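User: Please predict the structure of the protein below. I'd like the answer in structure-token form so I can feed it into my own downstream comparison script.

Assistant: Understood. Taking the following sequence of 513 residues as input:
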Amino acid sequence: MKMVSLIALLVFATGAQAAPVASKAPAPQPTGDNLPPLPVAAPTPAARPTSAAAPAVDPAAASAVNTIVDNAENAAGIGSDVATVHTYSLRELGAQSALTMRGAAPLQGLQFGIPADQLVTSARLVVSGAMSPNLQPDSSAVTITLNEQYIGTLRPNPSHPAFGPLSFDINPIFFVSGNRLNFNFAAGSKGCADPSNGLQWASVSEHSELQITTIPLPPHRELSRLPQPFFDKNVRQKTVIPFVLAQTFDPEVLKASGILASWFGQQTDFRGVNFPVFSTIPQTGNAVVVGVADELPSALGRPAINGPTLMEVANPSDPNGTILLVTGRDRDEVIAASKGIGFGSSALPVAARMDVAPIDVASRVPNDAPSFIPTNRPVRFGELVPVSALQGEGYTPGVLSVPFRTSPDLYTWRDRPYKLNVRFRAPDGPIIDLERSHLDVGINNTYLQSYSLHEKSSMVDQLFQRISGGNQTSSVQQHTLTIPPWMVFGQDQLQFYFDAAPLTRPELDSHVG
């Protein structure tokens, strides 16, 4: 059962203008000779989790995984001592609160990524939570899967609703670059119960943890892969990209660095990014080095430079680390090289080096930052999120969110509100009770309006409904609502919540009550 928001427009008043912003002094940059250690959460030596039943691992699959790991270690010249253990709570993976499943909304899941330069060698899921004491142990369960591969099962205990921590080992071969961890609830209750009631539920705590052990893969240095390896879009966590500048950097080098940092910042989007600045190359990991060729750190040698140049080389102290060189024979060429990434990233080659040709950049206009939505035309939701983000499965598919950004200094004439045009539809057929089902609309966790899924049909539509045999069909509804300007403050999120009620079954009503 699927509900789809087909088309939606976010209309900002064309008369919106930008107020002048007072200039601010730049924040002081961090300095130092060594990179601060990146945060790596290791398993906490707290209460030892109870081992739960997990699927047996196929010996052939285990052998294949070991072969892959051995080959990767041999190719990179590394051993098991460089394995890194990452521990993420479900909250860190995106769960704002406990993952609660009910009869009408039995599926909850989280998406997370594995960096392209890492290989998973082992993993474990440690879960805790609670299940309704009204559930029957022999017919109720929560099935855990990773990318549709079975991980384990949670069973209710009516005398002890809370469970955990329970530990499930995960076969590392199940992991890919983009992963989905699902919890699927199958409810069996004492007697016959309506799936929409509050007696059938299971909850997995947002403090449950996923522990992943990885080793680095041999680096694959190609400019066309940028922003990798500095940033991977599959990873939700905040990014740290060190910049290395000469001790005597000047405004031109800072301008080139700003172009690069702006481009990386746009790529990271909502995840956030830090740019610590140093004068020497870090001992481990990746970094961006910006400067004139003759002033580059001596550890990089003196590569032949004939003009604006982009180059990826190995970190002199870490063969698995990558250094992005943005350089030239003078400061103007350094700026030109930075524009090769900031304004010409689509033309980066499948090679580790590129001589950058001059790039003409169009004149700026007010509020043209690429992450700001335009104010001179309607903006379709499909421009802000993929179509899949506007679709929901099940009776209560959860909140469908549409994040967007506006210039923080917008104002409207006489505080006129912004207009939001929403089109949506419910599924066809006798699946839900349209009279009791509705769509709630909000912005930034503030309620705006509710709309019934039952469309007010005309006499002609009602006649056609009778002629067609009374089959319940649903067409696209369209509504316009207004958003007060004070509810929009730069980084925003529209929220849509479908609350669909299942049709009441007469045979069920005779037993429930």
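That's the full token string. Residues 1-7, 12-81, 507-513 have pLDDT under 50 and may be disordered.
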